[in-house]
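Case study: Ras modification protein ERF4.
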Amino acid sequence: MAAGETYKVDNMSRLSTSQCTKVFIQRDFSEGTAVRFQNKFPQELEGKIDRATLERTLNTINEIYAEAEALSSRTYCESCFACLTAYLAYLCMDTYYEKCLKRVARYIDEQNKTVYVPHGLMIVDPVERGLRVLEICVLNEPQHR
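Here is what the predicted structure looks like once written out:
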């Protein structure tokens, strides 16, 4: 991808998300309060993106969030170290959860550039919506009011 195309995608994410039709995929609370998004295909995306592509993206995002919230020896040691340093360690390092959030952001950015923007869609990082919904902007249609 050329430098000009990357700039174009970056500008789209900043400028046109307020001027597009928005499709929301809600959180799935059927298995508890862990961050997980429903795997239902929204009717508004019919004919715009393949169901399998969206499902693969949602599954990957859900897997990364599940990994972020899983208890492990790593998170246990990280918490103990933070406690021992009066939580000053968090000024110098990212938590494992924060690293996973950054991984989701990178994955969404990569998916937008390679899959979704060429189809006239753009996924917004769920962190920008307080992890409440996964927002997909339809870039090629005017907003319905």
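For the exam, be able to explain this: DSSP finds five helices and three strands in the chain.
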